[in-house]
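$ ./design --mode recover --in tokens.txt
reading tokens...
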């Protein structure tokens, strides 16, 4: 009974070496990533330290709020309406 061909063994060794090199970096990034539970407090602390005011929910202009909520903002990018852009509208 013979083992796998040489190129398969080389591929397996290369994959093992790459995994051995990347695993410590991935583990370090996983451990050092901060928890997202307190993200709003961290944002408030950072903006307060720089003196930047945060906009409230009602401070954002309505047009900008509608455009930023769209998942497909093609009306921002299209210069002239075409059949593709007028057949379906993402917002009224």
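writing sequence...
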């Amino acid at each position: 009974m013979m083992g796998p061909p040489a190129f398969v063994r080389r591929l397996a060794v290369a994959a093992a070496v790459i995994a051995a090199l990347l695993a410590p970096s991935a583990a370090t990034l996983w451990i050092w990533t901060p928890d997202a539970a307190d993200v709003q407090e961290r944002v408030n602390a950072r903006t307060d330290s720089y003196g930047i005011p945060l906009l409230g929910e009602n401070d954002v202009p309505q047009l900008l709020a509608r455009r930023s909520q769209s998942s497909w903002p093609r009306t921002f990018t299209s210069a002239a309406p075409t059949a593709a852009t007028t057949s379906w509208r993402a917002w009224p």
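exit 0
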